[in-house]
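Is this the right way to post C-alpha cells for a design question? Let me know if I should format differently. Anyway, here goes:
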C-alpha cells in the first residue's frame, strides 16, 4: 500500500494542473499523499526486517537497508538534477517506475512473519489528538520562520502563538489518552524499558542535531559557493547534489559495517562514538570560510556521514531488539514518527538560529559591500529593508533584489552613484559575495548548537546500558540461572 500510494502521489505531482499560488497549494496537497505512502514504507520496513532476520544479523540487515535508502537518494539527486534542467515535473516522474515495480514485487513476494494480535481496535482519539497536535505544531513552526510586520520572524504572530499553544495542549493530552485506551497507537509501556527509552531519546536528539544541516549545506553550495565558482544558477541544483555525495558515501561505508559489528558487540559503543564523530564534524565544518577549499569540505562531510552511519543502524537494531515481537510494528512506527518530528523541529531550530543571527548582522555586511563597490551613502538603514528570509532565498534562487531596492530610494540618495557602481550592485556577483560572509557567520552559530545536540545524543546513547535482546536473557542472567541449576 505504501508503494502504491506514493506512486499515485508522484503521478499527481508530475501532472499538477495549475500554476501560481493554486499550483503551489496543489503541490503541497499531493506531497501529503506522498507522505502517507512514505509513512507506510518507513514505519514498516524496520519491523519487517526485524521479523525476517535472527537477532545476530539484524544490525547488518538494518544497515544495508539504510544503504539502500541513501543509494536511492544519491541516484535520485543526480537523475533529478539532470531532469530539472528540462522540466521540474520530470523530477517527480523518477519514482514512478520504481513505485510500480515495488508495488507489484512487495505484493507477491513479501510474506507476513509478524505475530498479529486479532480483534485490535484503531485508536481513533489517539490518532486524532497526536495527528492534529503534530500538524499544528509543524505548521506553526513553519509560519514562525517568515517575516511578520517589522520583525524578521513570526514568533509574535497571534496565529502562530495560538497554533503552538493548541498543539502543545493536544500533545499533552495524548499520553493521558494512550494510557486509557485498550489498543493504543503509542504503547507507552515500552518506554519503561531503558534500552528502548534511551535509544529513542538518542534518535530524537540525533535528528534534532542533523535536522536541516544537509539542507543548509545544499543552500550554502547553491547560493554561495557554486555561483562564486562560475556555475550558473540553472545548473546549481545538479552540482549541489554531486558535491554533497561524500556525505552519503560516508553513510554507505559505515552503515552496514557498524550494523554488523553491533550484532557481535552491542550497539552502545558504536552509536555513542557515531554521535561523537558527528558532533566533531560539525565543529570542523564551522571552521571553514564561505569560499572553502572543496577537498577539505568533502572530507568533513564524509566524516559526518561516517558518524551518522555509525550511529543509525546499531541504534535502530537496539530499539527493535528490545521489544516483544507483537509490538514491533508499533515500535517501528513510534521510532519513525519521533525521528521525523525531531528532524522537522531541528530544521526549524536551525533556520530560526540562522535567520535571527542574520537579522542583526546582514545590514552591516551589505553596507560594507556597497561602500567597497563605490556606494558608501547606502548605509545600514537602506539594507534593513531586506528581510533575512528573503535574502536567504533570493541568494538560493540567484535573484538580486538591488534593482528593486535602488528603484525605491529617493533620487537624491542615488544621484551620486556612477553607472559602473549601479551595474556592479545590480550584477550577478555582488549580491552573493555580499551575502556569503554574513550567512557563513550565522551558520556557524547554528552549527555550534547542532554539535552540542550531537554530544547530548551521545550521552543518551551511553545510558541505554548493555546489549539486550527480547526473549534472550543477557549473559549475566544466563550465568546466574546456570549457577542456580548447578546448586
Amino acid at each position: 500500500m505504501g508503494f502504491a500510494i506514493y506512486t499515485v502521489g508522484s503521478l499527481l505531482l508530475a501532472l499538477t494542473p495549475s500554476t501560481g499560488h493554486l499550483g503551489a497549494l496543489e503541490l503541497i496537497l499531493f506531497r501529503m499523499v506522498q507522505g502517507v505512502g512514505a509513512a507506510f514504507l518507513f514505519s514498516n520496513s524496520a519491523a519487517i526486517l526485524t521479523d525476517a532476520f535472527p537477532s545476530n544479523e539484524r544490525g547488518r540487515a538494518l544497515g544495508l537497508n539504510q544503504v539502500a535508502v541513501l543509494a536511492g537518494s544519491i541516484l535520485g539527486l543526480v537523475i533529478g538534477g539532470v531532469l530539472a534542467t528540462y522540466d521540474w515535473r520530470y523530477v517527480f516522474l523518477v519514482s514512478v517506475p520504481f513505485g510500480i515495480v515495488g508495488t507489484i514485487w512487495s505484493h507477491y513476494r513479501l510474506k507476513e512473519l509478524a505475530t498479529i494480535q486479532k480483534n485490535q481496535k484503531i485508536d481513533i482519539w489517539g490518532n486524532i489528538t497526536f495527528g492534529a497536535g503534530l500538524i499544528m505544531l509543524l505548521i506553526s513552526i513553519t509560519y514562525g520562520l517568515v517575516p511578520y510586520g517589522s520583525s524578521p520572524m513570526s514568533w509574535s504572530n497571534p496565529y502562530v502563538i495560538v497554533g503552538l499553544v493548541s498543539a502543545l495542549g493536544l500533545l499533552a493530552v495524548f499520553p493521558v489518552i494512550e494510557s486509557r485506551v485498550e489498543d493504543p497507537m503509542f504503547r507507552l509501556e515500552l518506554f519503561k524499558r531503558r534500552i528502548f527509552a534511551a535509544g529513542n531519546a538518542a534518535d530524537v536528539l540525533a535528528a534534532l542535531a542533523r535536522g536541516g544541516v544537509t539542507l543548509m549545506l545544499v543552500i550554502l553550495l547553491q547560493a554561495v559557493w557554486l555561483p562564486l565558482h562560475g556555475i550558473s544558477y540553472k545548473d546549481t541544483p545538479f552540482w549541489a547534489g554531486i558535491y554533497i555525495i561524500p556525505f552519503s558515501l560516508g553513510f554507505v561505508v559505515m552503515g552496514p559495517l557498524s550494523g554488523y559489528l553491533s550484532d557481535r558487540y552491542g550497539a552502545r559503543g558504536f552509536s555513542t562514538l557515531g554521535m561523537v564523530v558527528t558532533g566533531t564534524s560539525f565543529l570542523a565544518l564551522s571552521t571553514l570560510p564561505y569560499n572553502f577549499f572543496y577537498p577539505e569540505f568533502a572530507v568533513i562531510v564524509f566524516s559526518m556521514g561516517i558518524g551518522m552511519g555509525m550511529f543509525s543502524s546499531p541504534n535502530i537494531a537496539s530499539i527493535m531488539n528490545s521489544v516483544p515481537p507483537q509490538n514491533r510494528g508499533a515500535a517501528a512506527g513510534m521510532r519513525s514518527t519521533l525521528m521525523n518530528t525531531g528532524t522537522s523541529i531541528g530544521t526549524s531550530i536551525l533556520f530560526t538560529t540562522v535567520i535571527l543571527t542574520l537579522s542583526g548582522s546582514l545590514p552591516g555586511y551589505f553596507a560594507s559591500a556597497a561602500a567597497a563597490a563605490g556606494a558608501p551613502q547606502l548605509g545600514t538603514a537602506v539594507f534593513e529593508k531586506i528581510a533575512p528570509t528573503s535574502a536567504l532565498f533570493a541568494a538560493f534562487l540567484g535573484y538580486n533584489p538591488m534593482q528593486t531596492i535602488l528603484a525605491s530610494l529617493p533620487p537624491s540618495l542615488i544621484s551620486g552613484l556612477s553607472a559602473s557602481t549601479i551595474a556592479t550592485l545590480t550584477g550577478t556577483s555582488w549580491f552573493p559575495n555580499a551575502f556569503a560572509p554574513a550567512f557563513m557567520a550565522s551558520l556557524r552559530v547554528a552549527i555550534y548548537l547542532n554539535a552540542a545536540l550531537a554530544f547530548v545524543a551521545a550521552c543518551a546513547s551511553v545510558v541505554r546500558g548493555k546489549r539486550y535482546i527480547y526473549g534472550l536473557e543477557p549473559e549475566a542472567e544466563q550465568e546466574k540461572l546456570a549457577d542456580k541449576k548447578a546448586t
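Format looks fine. Someone answered above. Worth noting: The mean pLDDT is 85. Residues 328-372 form the longest helix (45 residues).
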